[in-house]
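Recap from last week: sequence in, structure out.
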Amino acid sequence: RGGGGGGGGGGKRGRWHKPSSSSAAIPYGTRGVVVTCEQGKERAACRDVARALDEIYEAKFPSSANAGDGESGDAGDPPSTADPGGSRADPSDALAAELRQLKEEKSESRRFEYLNLDFKACAFVRMNKEDAGKCAPSELVHALLEKVRDGERVKKNGGDPGFVPRSRHVMRLVPADDVCFAGMDEIKKAAKALIDARFTAFEANRSHDSEPSKTPADVSSDAPSETKKKKTFAVAFASRANSSLKRAEVIDAVADLVPKGEWSVDLSTPDLTIAVEVIKGTCCLSVLREYYGMLKYNWRMLGLSDEERAAERARGTTTDRNTEKTT
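Predicted structure tokens:
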């Protein structure tokens, strides 16, 4: 006997998420990245993301790369392979211990932590609070994807792109610069703080970048300058395992927080995109640059050639099962 409109019929199709549990929730106030990936590869995908973002962070803050090193013993002394009695340890044992240590250091990040969301093909990478205070997850993800995109462009032109971060399992990266309860009032409060900070910073950077190109004629002209032209934005909404929030209501509420006058909606190439990612009872928020230019922050697609991208789209392997709506 058939079920209602939301029953799906036979009931043989597996759930794409398990019943909600407190251990599978993203803590409020957390910063990190929502990772979509191949089913069954959630932990491996998050490990790839943690490694790549670690490299980006350490490139931005070189002094952090060696933080915590040399806490025990002298920093310049190599580890000893001799036992206290003076006889040397077995070289094979020393090599095995060194390889094991390197494997542990590479597999675990002190800066990023894997969070299981009880979803298929979706997980969360939480960023250390202190490090996130220095550089927001959205900035790290943008820098990572920029490196992937630029590497493919160099390769397409016949050049040597050097090292380009790759992952066999990761699809999309959705930064979370703040996480709040998935309620309308909480979303508006958290979004307002991000919009005030990021939109203002974008305007300041845009004004600063355009200063060198100004001439006395431009200053004296009555024509509107480039910095006074309307800037554009969009709101990207996605929801997983949550039916209490209405897409249109959330989008309208967030869009109303954007300063009126110099900002207008652009659904194709907005300057900034406000990402609203609802996951169970939490909401991940961020303000992103080049969201559509970077293929909705799809790491896999961004690193492919045009031909490979077309083949992937034909197979449908890089599309997010969750439907995203934009306005």
